[in-house]
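Quick start: read one record
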Amino acid sequence: MTQQLDAVTPSPELVRQSAPDTKTLTVGIVGLGYVGLPTAIAFAAGGAHVVGVDVSAQRLDAIRTLRVDISPCDLDQLRQIFQTNELTLTDDIGLLGSVDAIVICVPTPVDDHLTPDLAALAAACRGVCSVARPGQLIVLTSTSYVGTTEDLLVKPLTARGLLVGVDVFVAFSPERIDPGNLAFTHDSVPRVVGGTTSECALRAADLLRHTTKQVHIVSSTKAAELTKLYENTFRAVNIALVNEIADVSNELSVLITEVIDAAATKPYGFMPFSPGPGVGGHCIPCDPHYLLWQLRRQRVAMPLVESAMRGIAERPARVVARVREELADHGIALRGAHVAIVGVAYKPGVEDVRESPALEIIKRLMDLGVEVSYVDPFVPAVTIDGQRLTAMTAPELLLRRSVDLAVLHTRHPQLTLDWLDSVPIVLDATYRAVDLDHRVLV
């Protein structure tokens, strides 16, 4: 039987103040995506030998050939790590039986019905539990429902006869990686850790100090799991709110960005959020649904969060409605109109289109008979309902035929917008393109 965390008071100050030497440390990383690969790089750069496991041969090949969407700093480190042979890439989870610690970083999306898709996480945890040996530390980082660590790691390990906290050590530490954000490096972002026992928590904290300067221990794995869900639910609710305020501002003929910037001068009690065309990526569109799904099963409601998630889901439709309005106001027929989407990645500076509002906007416009093109230097192609669209450059767009309306969806740093001066209608879904004199807002 396992025991809950004992004799640990939640505090950023830790009992152990220095991490053990990395010269002989071996760490296995399960899942080498947007979280796992930077995590592997951070451990290897700190001197540990890393065994990176991923089920996708294509992903492993992309990593080996450095064709991955990571920060320039991480890419340089990855190049150096390959030269020192501190990173082993494999699809064989059996190799993790020999490592000191295992960190699980697989995706946890939701399906079309907003139900958590735990297939990848469950498979990864089964694999890890099957090869786990006495003395190992296992840290789960994938966002999931409260109780996941207990259900998918502690119980199976116990069934194998391994006493958690004595034979093996299990903890949860939610990932905090923001792709494309160069202001917060891996080592500058504090990590939260909750262990099945106090020893589990302390061992996990020791491990994570190889990749971050500050670790905050909480009293249990459940507390750490809920921390991650709360972080992103907080963001979702505030994004839904600022989108509503943006709509109200338009009705009242007030510039929303001016209001946000003014409110942000208050040094306490306010945090600025920006309106937009919707929310993409893994975290905000997905994570709150893990909490809502779990609570629905327990017949507990969260009306505020449910309303916020509906508002976020409906935002792309709002953009399409504004496209229809602007085309109609200019006497342009919807069917056959040419609309260009500027930036389809879910955020600036990345090639990630997971849950990107642009994909739904494009689909809705195509369903209305609109001819849609897009410009994005990071995303060479997207597939919408089986139809493949390839990125175009601005000159290609303008040479082929005139653009009736452009939707500024994602403003990449490398993306010049001077060509939009020749487009009669520019719908600014970023709300920040103040250099475009003829823009209209969502």
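The mean pLDDT is 93.
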